[in-house]
Amino acid sequence: MTPGSAAARSYLVRQQTLFGDQLLLGEAADSAIEPDTKVDGSQVEELAAFNREIRECQECPLGATRTKFVFGVGNPAADLVLVGEAPGRQEDLQGEPFVGQAGKLLDKMLAAIGLSRQQVYILNVLKCRPPENRDPRPAEVDQCQPYLNRQLSIIRPRLIVALGRVAARTLLKIDESLKNMRGRIFNYEGIELMVTYHPAALLRNSGFKPNAWVDFQAIRDRYRELAGLPPVEGPRAAGN
Ligand code: URA
Fold first, then answer.
1. N or C: which end of the chain has fewer CB within 10 A?
2. DSSP-based three-state secondary structure for 154
3. How many A from CA of 119 to the centre of ligand 1?
């Protein structure tokens, strides 16, 4: 087997593990992987300064129950930002978003479209864990949202991906079903925004994975277009 076909094979195995048997893939992993996006020093500093400013936050009761404040992780000059809901147990302990089971799946999904955590930026609507992972309360979202808005205004990505309804609703101020929001391009403060499943929903119901793969291919294609990268060739997955 040539090195290229070995890479292609391992890519397909990875895709199948992730998304099941309904895939039709044409591209090899190495063709999809891009070098790290260039980091802009002023964004690094501005984001770090903002982290220092808010990391002791006690503006809502979650400040008293958290272990660690979970600011966000990744490339401060990223073209793609992914927005989750709130830290879970592992995130609360480690101070980093998406490091538990849902995070491991998110990493695989990113890898499937040729991206790593270091290239994108990952953050949550809430910076502190709601006890027992309960849903964020509207007052907590209202309190925390200015932090998210400020982070996005510093990073200024080309594309935002809302992972699940809480993130989508918070950013878009609309109350639609995930089904209605998938497959569309929204606008958040002049930045394109796409909506897909929260990885935890995919862990609970693997039947959503083929649709998630359709979404991730669309995210990859739009991201590459916006970033001026060549399109990835090959047949698209079947999906709905
Ligand atoms: N779920 C989220 O929405 N965010 C995390 O950081 C972890 C799990």
1. C
2. helix
3. 18
**Amino acid identity for residue 159 in this structure:** L
Mind listing the pLDDT tens digit of every residue in the chain (240 residues)?
A: 444 455 455 555 455 555 554 333 333 333 344 444 556 689 999 999 999 999 999 999 999 999 999 999 999 999 999 999 999 999 999 999 999 999 999 999 999 999 999 999 999 999 999 999 999 999 999 999 999 999 999 999 999 999 999 999 999 999 999 999 999 999 999 999 999 999 999 999 999 999 999 999 999 999 999 999 999 986 554 444
In a domain, 196, yes or no: yes
115: its two tokens: 């991206």
Give a yes or no: residue 156 inside a domain. Answer: yes
Helix (H, G, I), strand (E, B) or coil at 98: coil
Please give the distance, rounded to the nearest whole angstrom, from the Cα atom of residue 215 to the centre of ligand 1. Answer: 19
Q: Tell me if 3 is assigned to some domain.
A: no
Tell me which residues have their CB closer than 6 angstroms to ligand 1: 84-88, 91, 97-98, 100, 102-103, 124, 200
Cα–Cα dist 76/219, whole Å: 19
Q: What is the CATH number of the domain that holds 45?
A: 3.40.470.10
